[in-house]
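Protein in question quoted in full.
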Amino acid sequence: MNQSAIAFNPVFEHVQTADSPLVMTSIYQPHINLVIWQRQLQKTLQDYIDALTQGLNALQLRTIIAPAEVSEWLGGLLPEDPRRHLFIDDVSQLVEMYADLFDLNVVGLRLSLINETMCPRFHTDHLACRLVTTYSGQGSEWLQEGNVDRSKLGAGSKGMADQLSGIYQHHQDIQQLQQGEVGLFKGDGWINSQVNGIVHRSPHINKTDKRLLLTLDFAE
């Protein structure tokens, strides 16, 4: 995929999207606070992810790790399956891309199987940039700059739920990453940004649902 595949979203000027991983470098543009690599997972990989998600009741893996160590580390923790290497290769690739993008020797990796809504309120992250991808289940939700009242963040909501606080006006204002897509969420800790961190939240999930989520952060 060549660079011409990367274009500004005409509706969301602070967002850049493309079906090429090259789009991830756009996070360095000072007016961008969300980058979305619009990818679709291969069927064999998705079949493995579905089987893994259905076969586990819980999964909480967290570590600080170098890209070259991810394959061996995950291989020792995930259940045996002839397709397992496809998932491990995908996670390893994302870790390598994230580390290269930000010149990191190690990254903070979290792989979680979630059956409850983690962060139900719209918020910004107090960090530089987080990579987020949902392998199974609903993706993260976010608000475009023109549709968010940042004065309603945190204490500004006066304890009211998002749908009542006025942080957004209409339900259709809520945007959502699709399963398999990779998002780079710029936070308030990004130095010299022309826009504040992207306002986002976890999707609401029912108790019978599961969500397999990978996040990558700068290691602390």
In short: The two ends are 34 Å apart (CA to CA). The chain has a mean pLDDT of 91.
